[in-house]
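Dear H.,

Thanks for agreeing to be a second pair of eyes. The structure we're designing against is below in C-alpha cell form, covering all 88 positions.
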C-alpha cells in the first residue's frame, strides 16, 4: 500500500498497490511482507492470515506431512506409527 505496510498475515509483492493479499493456511507473513512463508514439512497451520511462524505446529505422534505449506497433518497408515514430534 502506498505509504502503509500490509498487516500481519497479508502481503503485497508489487509497488504502488493499494491492497494486500491474504496468506492461506500453511503459511504466514510478518507485517510489511512481500510474500507468505510456508510452514516447513512436518508442521501445519490450518489458520489463514497468520503473522507468526508460531502458528506452524509440529505434527504430533501418529501424524505426519512431508510437504511445505501444509494446512493439516495426516494420520499414519494402519500398521505404521511415529512416536516423535517433527522438528523445525
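And this is the sequence the design step returned. I haven't edited it by hand at all.
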Amino acid at each position: 500500500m502506498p505509504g502503509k505496510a500490509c498487516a500481519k498475515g497479508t502481503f503485497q509483492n508489487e509497488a504502488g498497490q493499494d491492497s494486500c493479499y491474504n496468506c492461506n493456511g500453511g503459511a504466514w507473513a510478518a507485517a510489511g511482507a512481500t510474500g507468505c512463508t510456508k510452514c516447513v514439512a512436518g508442521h501445519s497451520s490450518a489458520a489463514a492470515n497468520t503473522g507468526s511462524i508460531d502458528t506452524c505446529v509440529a505434527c504430533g505422534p501418529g501424524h505426519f506431512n512431508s510437504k511445505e505449506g501444509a494446512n493439516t497433518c495426516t494420520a499414519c497408515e494402519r500398521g505404521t506409527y511415529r512416536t516423535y514430534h517433527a522438528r523445525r
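Two observations from my side: The longest strand covers residues 10-11. The chain has a mean pLDDT of 89.

Warmly,
E.
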